[in-house]
Amino acid sequence: PQSIQAGVRQVFGVGEMLQHSGIWPQHFVQIQYADEERGQVRPGRMESFWAIYYAGPLMDIQRVVDKALASGAPNIEGVGRIWRSWLFHHVTDLWGDVPYSEALANENNTTPAYDSQSDVYSGLFSDLTTGANLITSSGSDFGTGDILYGNDFEKWRRFGNSLRMRLAMRLSNVDPETARSEFVAAYNAGGFQSNEDNAMLQYPGFPWENPLFQDFLGRDDNGISRTMVGLLSVLDDPRLEFYAEPAASDGAYRGRENGAGNLSFTAFSSYSRIGNFWRRDGAATPSPVMTYAEVLFLQAEATERGWITGNASALYLEGIQANMDLYDKYDVGPSDTEVSTYLGQSVIAYAGGGTGLVQINRQKWIALWMNAAEAWANWRRTDVPTLAAGPDLRVNRIPIRFSYPDSEQSLNLDNMNAAVSRQGGGLDLITPVWWDGT
C-alpha cells in the first residue's frame, strides 16, 4: 500500500503534475510563481522527484516482488511486477535513459549503470507479460493492503495488459514493428472491458485526501489553460463546465496562456480555475491511474494503423463516451443528453486516415485530464494537439523531458555522462527521449 500511495501521490501530486507534467501539455497553467511555465525548472525539484521514485515506491515494490519470489506467491509477484512497471515507465518517460537493471538490486549501490530507454522498455514489456501471466484466481492476496483493486486479481491482470498496450503505442514512431507485436499480444490477452476495470485510487478521508484538494486548502495558484478552454469551447464540449470554474470577475470561461509570466494576485479573478470536483469538493475525488477510455483510444489508433481488426470510428466514439461517463457514480460530469448531442456533431464525426489519428489523439488529450504525465507523453509522441510556446519561455521550445539531478552528477557522473552522450543530451529540458525523436 505504501508503494501505491506514494507512487500515485508523486505522479498526480501538485509538485510534479500541476507545476511540471501538466503545464507543458497545456492542461493546467501556473498563474503565480510561474518559473516552470517559462522553462526555469528548480534543480531541487528534479532532485526530489528522482529520489522519491527510487528510494520510495520503487524500492518498496521491489521488496514486495522479492518476498513473493521467496515465498512462492505468484499473485503477489505478478501484481508487484505490474506496479513496478507502472512506476518505471513514468521514470523513463520523464528522464529517458535511467538506472533500471541495477537500480534496485542493491540499495547501497550509488553508481548503477544507466540502461538505454529501448532496453528499459524491453524489460517493461517482459515484466508486464510475466506479471499478467502469473496471476490466477486463487492463491495469496494482500489482505487489506491492496488499496487499488482490493485483491481483484483479474482486474490487476487487465490493468497489466492495458498498460502494455499504452507502452506499445509509445513506440509507434521509433520501432513500429515492436509496437505492433506488443500491442497485438496485449490486446489478445485482454485489457479493460468497461469503466468498472479502471485503476482509480480512492481516498478514504483525512489524512488520505486527494493532493489537489490539499493544495487548494493551502495555496491554490494554478488554473486551467487557455488551450484546454479554447478547444472545449470550439467543440461545444460539455466537459468545459466540469473541468473549469467560471472566472470570478465576470462568469466567463477564460483560460490563462501557458508560458507567460506571473500575474498579480488581483488578476486571479479574471481567469478560470480548475473545476471544484478536484479543488473545493475534491477531498475524496480519486486519481485516474489508467482508464477504459484511454484503452479504447489506444485500440482505435491500433485499428486505424492496421494492427488489429475493428471499427476505428466506433472505438473512438466509445472512448469519448467512456470518458464522459467516468464520474457518473459521483453524479457529476456531462448528462446523457449532453453526451448524445456532443457525439452527434459533425465536427466530432470520425474522418479516418491521418485525420482520424489526429481526432483520436485530440480526444485522448482531452480525456487524459488529471492524468497529465500521460497527456504530456502522448503529446510528445503525436504532436496532437498543436501547442504554441508561450511569450516568456526561456528555452527554445516547450520542455519535453526532465533533467538529471545534481546528485547523479556528484555520485554517478561516469554512468550519467554515458547516458547523456548516448541520447545527445539529458541535462536540459529540450532533448527528446528515445521514443519521441522530434
Describe the structure.
It is a single chain. By secondary structure, the chain is mainly α. It is built from 17 helices and six strands. It has helices at 2-11, 14-21, 43-71, 74-95, 117-134, 153-170, 176-189, 211-218, 226-234, 240-243, 292-304, 312-324, 336-343, 353-367, 372-382, 406-411, 413-423, and strands spanning 28-30, 98-99, 114-115, 199-201, 222-224, 287-290. The strands form three sheets. It has a two-stranded antiparallel sheet. α6 (153-170) runs antiparallel to α7, α6 (153-170) packs across α11 and α14 packs antiparallel against α15 (372-382). The model has no long low-confidence stretch (mean pLDDT 96).
Key attributes of the depicted protein:
438 residues; mainly alpha; two-stranded antiparallel sheet; two-stranded antiparallel ribbon; globular
Mean pLDDT: 96
Output the helix-strand order. Answer: HHEHHEEHHHEHEHHEHHHHHHH
Based on secondary structure, the structural category is mainly alpha
Radius of gyration: 21 Å
Number of helices: 17
Strand residues, percent: under 5%
Neighbour order of strands in the largest sheet = 1-5
Question: End-to-end span in angstroms?
Answer: 38 Å
Summarize it.
With 438 residues, this protein is mainly alpha-helical. It has 17 helices and six strands.
What's the helix and strand layout?
Blueprint: H1 2-11, H2 14-21, E1 28-30, H3 43-71, H4 74-95, E2 98-99, E3 114-115, H5 117-134, H6 153-170, H7 176-189, E4 199-201, H8 211-218, E5 222-224, H9 226-234, H10 240-243, E6 287-290, H11 292-304, H12 312-324, H13 336-343, H14 353-367, H15 372-382, H16 406-411, H17 413-423
Helix pairs in contact: 1-3, 3-4, 4-5, 4-6, 5-6, 6-7, 6-11, 11-12, 11-14, 12-14, 14-15
